[in-house]
Specification:
5 strands; elongated; about 260 residues; 9 helices; about 10% strand; alpha/beta
């Protein structure tokens, strides 16, 4: 009778032999891994009642079962993780949607009794509503307001290379100019390239507030014209339902934006 150590050594040699034979049998090995199914088949072919080969086959079968169990467990965990992430993204979208509604209602309620100049706040709320409408985008896309503005700008304000203003934006600039909000087209185009960053640098509205209650946007040129054009396009795409009054550089209201169009007061 052979000793246990000798028996284990022989089994190890047989396993190596079987794996080597299987590699030759099944061809090149991807990433250094031999298919357990192929090795198990090979071991069963060699066994023919030999206990050593049978032991090797049992070992490979156990390894195959372990791999199947691990794969099933990993697939289950990945599935649960994806479900959790989807639930989280849905909850965040609902929170964002609620925030948009609350901010719009707050601005509207506040503006019923007093004038409110809200350049950045109106743009941020409309851009969030725009992002919420893009249901086919991955949840991680366009998370920042700067990214949201860039995406909207490239689709609705300027061409993809930011070289030309779109035709409807040129028409809006003409309509604004006719009612006293005047800025040269090249200056407005340049302002539209990075409008949100420009507004982020404006801490206070420096002119006296108007006397009539309402929501106002405006200030220095060409920022006023660029913002008015952007908000009108956001209105036209149904991302902002607020009625907005536009102020000139002196703080005087000149026109209003309703439904994506420029109207007289």
């Amino acid at each position: 009778l052979m000793s246990p150590k000798t028996y284990l050594l022989i089994c190890s040699i047989l396993l190596i032999t079987i794996f080597s034979s299987a590699v030759q049998h099944v061809g090149p090995v991807t990433a250094g891994r031999v298919s357990y199914v192929e090795c198990l088949t090979k071991a069963r072919q060699f066994s023919k009642g030999d206990k050593a080969y049978q032991l090797a086959g049992d070992f490979l079968e156990a390894e195959l079962d372990r791999e199947r169990t691990t794969t099933t467990l990993l697939n289950t965990l990945v599935g649960e993780m994806n479900n959790t992430l989807q639930a989280k993204d849905k909850l965040l979208d609902e929170i964002q949607n609620s925030r948009n509604k609350l901010e719009s209602e707050f601005l509207f309620s506040l503006a019923l009794g007093q004038p409110v100049v809200a350049n950045r706040m109106t743009l941020e709320g409309a851009l969030r509503a725009y992002r919420m409408s893009l249901t086919t985008l991955p949840p991680e896309s366009l998370k920042t307001t700067t990214e949201q503005y860039g995406d909207f700008r490239d689709k609705f304000l300027l061409d993809a290379s930011n070289t030309y203003m779109r035709r409807d934006c040129i028409k809006l600039n003409l309509d604004l100019s006719a009612l006293g909000i005047v800025a040269a087209l090249p200056d407005v185009k340049n302002e539209l390239k990075d409008l949100f960053r420009t507004l982020s640098g404006h801490v206070h509205y420096r002119n006296p507030l108007p006397t009539i209650p309402g929501i106002y946007i405006g200030g220095d040129q060409p920022t006023t014209s660029a913002l008015a054009i952007c908000m009108a396009r956001l209105q036209g795409e149904h991302h902002c339902d607020l009625e907005l009054y536009v102020l000139d550089a002196h703080g005087d209201p000149k026109c209003k934006l309703v439904g994506g169009k420029v109207h007289t007061l």
